[in-house]
């Protein structure tokens, strides 16, 4: 029987020995040193009575000690909640409502009055615990809750997805024998992986674990600055948003930095338009990996630099495209994606009605629209809930956005519904212009009318330099609508 998570992390660090696994603040940290730090923090948590089922919030940055604290919290079997930067006080208190402890690496527990409920533990105090040199034994059972992973909160306060220790044990990052081809191709490029923000982030931690399992080193940068951080640290890989990729591409075109070490940029958080991908590939080379997943599921599919722009590759998980009646549809037909992944959540914390709606018979309703082509490649076409209602008829935003993005004057396009006295709602398009071009509303309306329907064509157009994003890096349509 496989030992529960984080058993494989402990084994990996033990086997790596003196190999450097972190570069932080001018120092290199070996796997053996990091494992010793995990042992100390584990002991520090246990002497404070923290064990299976206890809610522990982690308000940490990126450092070897932060990584050790995350692993240690799982060793003792806690129900872990990661607190990412950029949250409002209201959102942070919502995240921490059911936690008994908050571990922070802020000096002297700074800002404790705004941390949230529960007792604040300074990471520095946990680090002075003794190291007995004995490999820690994970305490959790497979059905115990390992962590609550919160959604972006772009539609209000974040929802908490419940992930068990069994799901974390079954996830792909620490299982090289289970890596699908796209992940295996990515893993080979993670020699020096830049980490920033917080390692309590689902995306940052999972790619970080993948890098360690592939024999790589985590290189901390805070704050990140592209392309400077890549050039300075001779990084081979990093995570980047769509907006960040656009800025990096523009910076390289204007004043090229030496990015000869770069081999992989993992784009996540929002769809990457084919035109934007082609532009990035022309300037940066074949380095863009485009991951598709959800907080509820983890990774669903990943496109490599060899995949056709717009495709998300062949999903390595169970995936069905279903119609509105819940029946699977043939290849080439659009429908809603339903998936099963090894590391998926089991529901939403404290929200049984929403859990019953999204988690059905072992499948997760993604509420994304897409299709599988005859070769099994996945193409997204929109979201079931990203809709605009015109004259009582529902129009999905995704197809309109993708069509607008094909116009030569458009680099990126996003549409939202705005109140309209005549039709109830109307389509408002927010467009990032292509370099040297100025989009015209009449041309964009004609394009949509000719290919979709006149009612889904934009009646208003706003040119923007870049899309606002949520703290999780996703397009923030609420801010667009509020500003429109």
From TrEMBL:
Record-annotated AMP-binding enzyme C-terminal domain positions: 400-474
CDD domains: AFD_class_I
Pfam families: AMP-binding (PF00501), AMP-binding_C (PF13193)
S-adenosyl-L-methionine keyword on record: no
Domain AMP-dependent synthetase/ligase: start-end pairs: 18-349
Keywords: Ligase
Recorded GO MF terms: ligase activity
Highest rank taxon of the organism: Bacteria
InterPro entries per UniProt: AMP-bd_C, AMP-bd_C_sf, AMP-binding_CS, AMP-dep_synth/lig_dom, ANL_N_sf, ATP-dep_AMP-bd_enzyme
Name of the featured protein: Fatty acid--CoA ligase family protein
Species of origin: Streptomyces ortus
